[in-house]
Amino acid sequence: MKTTMELLKARDLHEKEFHQAVQEVVETVQPVMDRNPQYRQNAVLERIIEPERVIMFRVPWMDDQGQVHVNRGFRIEMNSAIGPYKGGLRFHPSVNLSILKFLAFEQVFKNALTTLSMGGGKGGSDFDPKGKSDNEVMRFCQSFMAELFRHIGPDTDVPAGDIGVGAREIGYLFGMYKKLRNEFTGVLTGKSLGWGGSLIRPEATGYGSVYFAAEMLATRNENLEGKICLVSGTGNVAQFTTEKILELGGKVVTLSDSTGYIYDEEGIDAGKLAFVKRLKNIQRGRIKEYTEKYVKSVYKEVEPEQEYNPLWNHKADCAFPSATENEINPKDALNLINNGVNLVCEGANMPSTPEAINVFVDKKILYAPGKASNAGGVAVSGLEMAQNSMRLNWPAEEVDRRLKMIMKNIHQTCLDAAADYNEPGNYMAGANIAGFSKVVNAMLDQGLV
Ligand code: NDP
């Protein structure tokens, strides 16, 4: 009989990111399969790796010069065993079926870990918002939603933002959904505050990741005070990760975008972070401009196929990869450890390659997989859905308190599940085992559907 991975590779030959995400889970849940013979009988692995539904569609739109362009739109409705499909939309030229299936698959386990009632999904387009005018972005979002609206709804599938989809895009998408359906419901999360958004949602992924890191450090009687931290990315997750690290007394010395990174030995303080937020969120500039203002810092370009990324080769205590998938290879992992890093907390989804993860696990450093440590974003999206259904808004302190509690619980759940399966301290095994068990038990309760 073919193994799960053989079946997957035969069916989806070129989906390498999806294979990578599935392989990690399949390997770590083998002991769970062995302990529960009914899982094999019910083919739970084969069922959980097959999306419930894949929607793929044409997105035609017109630029400011009257030229028509065509992009491809996707929504992967991966698993609804524990709630409506939930997961972000990514607009980036690299988007394809493999990347979205890997993200949707990870999302299933992440959402299960939050304890909220959310299934897993992901979607997006190969549209590149970079360099487009607001009107072009609006026309694209409207065309995208003109198809997507028939597949989503507040009790069916609730998309949110991801790379390239922030408050501006969510606004245009929501406006079109409302017009087409003639209803004002919590169909998208990450909305602006004035019309249904939740306080702390923009901050949630970054803050949550740092809360998770603080929990990991506490197991070794340490905290973030005085720790030197490497952060990658300059988007939503990187900005609020940096903000929370500063608040807890740490020092952030790097940030990056898709062309390169800056190193500021003196540390990126609150004033410098405010500059970065303006640069990225309003002026939509490049991180290189940081060095023109803060002249003691340095900028280095990074080629995608470089042997190692110099960002991960600086003296530091902690690393928070918060840009994109596969940004840490095994050489980077060794560089991190040789430079003193003993905590890697993933803000991005799957930023470490499987070989890099093996290095972290072998060296027994504190390593948190994104599906656990970046779950704060979707958790607060879940809280936004709850507030929308009640038609009320909780104050920031209340949302932040719940976020902190959820991250603490996820941390404990990972440790407990890992210990139960003889993998003490292995957060990756713990996250996979706990998320998997919850989802497959719900699937079995609901019969063969
Ligand atoms: P943003 O679009 O706000 O920022 C993405 C950042 O990553 C930008 O700095 C971007 O640079 C950089 N980047 C994008 N692609 C690449 C690449 N191929 N190589 C190097 N850098 C790149 O996205 P988010 O901050 O929201 O998302 C970052 C990561 O966090 C993603 O993996 C996402 O899936 C994950 N995540 C996000 C959540 C959220 O709530 N937003 C929730 C959970 C996970 P540039 O400016 O040049 O494009």
UniProtKB/TrEMBL annotation:
Keywords: NAD, Nucleotide-binding, Oxidoreductase. Homohexamer. CDD domains: NAD_bind_2_Glu_DH. PANTHER family: NADP-SPECIFIC GLUTAMATE DEHYDROGENASE 1-RELATED. NAD(+) binds at residues 205, 236. Pfam families: ELFV_dehydrog, ELFV_dehydrog_N. GO terms for biological process: glutamate biosynthetic process. Substrate binds at residues 86, 107, 110, 161, 381. Belongs to the Glu/Leu/Phe/Val dehydrogenases family. The record marks 162 as: Important for catalysis. GO terms for molecular function: glutamate dehydrogenase (NADP+) activity; nucleotide binding. GO terms for cellular component: cytosol. InterPro entries: Aminoacid_DH-like_N_sf, Glu/Leu/Phe/Val/Trp_DH, Glu/Leu/Phe/Val/Trp_DH_C, Glu/Leu/Phe/Val/Trp_DH_dimer, Glu/Leu/Phe/Val_DH_AS, Glu_DH, Glu_Leu_Phe_Val_DH, NAD(P)-bd_dom_sf. Gene3D superfamilies: Glutamate Dehydrogenase, chain A, domain 3, Leucine Dehydrogenase, chain A, domain 1, NAD(P)-binding Rossmann-like Domain. The active site is at 122 (proton donor). It comes from Candidatus Desulfatibia vada. This is Glutamate dehydrogenase. SMART domains: ELFV_dehydrog. The keyword Nucleotide-binding applies. The gene is gdhA. Residues 198-447 form the Glutamate/phenylalanine/leucine/valine/L-tryptophan dehydrogenase C-terminal domain. PROSITE patterns: GLFV_DEHYDROGENASE (PS00074). It comes from the Bacteria.
